[in-house]
Amino acid sequence: MTPSRPKSNRPFASSRAAVEKVALELFAERGFDDTPVEEIAAAAGISRRTFFRYFPTKADVLFGEFDVLMDGLDAWFDEAPDDQPMFAVIAEATMRFNRIHTDGLVAHRERMKLILQTPALRANGVLRQEEWVGVIARYAARRLGVAEGSLEAQLAAQLSIGAANAAYDQWLRGEERDLAELVDRSFAMIETLSRTAPAEPRSGKRRSASAS
């Protein structure tokens, strides 16, 4: 006799997006670590095997189709115009990568909070962010005429990630904030700081804290 599937009050989830929605609801109710895959599958009305056909790991529910998006971002940079300021292009790419419909903002905010509040997910996010750094570094290297692993390309990529993270941090703190505006402001600040920073190191020895 075939064992019956655990009953759930939720309707059968017939798509990847539907399973993701069920999983996110359970994560919000119980926390990521306290929600096993078996319970997600049961609540979605699918088998454990089907869950893993949709998502290689439980963490992948939170990060969506990251690899596909990275490939798309890489291709978009290849077609980006060279007559626009480099950081302005990266800012636009950041918003394309994080494009969220208005009706999905609340869910996206909760997703980001969950990632930041869960150590395992934060670690996973760092690894994925390294891929993002690589994509930006490749673009910056082409624009600057340097090697991808050069200081210039890596600095441009790290500055861009820092600008994006700062914008996200501000957005998560206040529901009334507009993410696109914060991203634009954050990247504009890079340009402002680069113009106001001293061109050369100051001469003379740095005064020690113990000096009178």
Structural account:
The protein has 2 domains: 16-61, Arc Repressor Mutant, subunit A, CATH 1.10.10; 64-194, Tetracycline Repressor, domain 2. It is built from 10 helices and no strands. The chain is 66% helix and 0% strand. It is mainly α and 212 residues long.
What topology does this entry show?
Elements: H1 16-30, H2 37-44, H3 48-54, H4 60-63, H5 66-79, H6 86-97, H7 105-117, H8 119-144, H9 151-173, H10 179-196
Provide the descriptors you would attach to this structure in a database record.
mainly alpha, disordered N terminus, elongated, 212 residues, Arc Repressor Mutant, subunit A, Tetracycline Repressor, domain 2
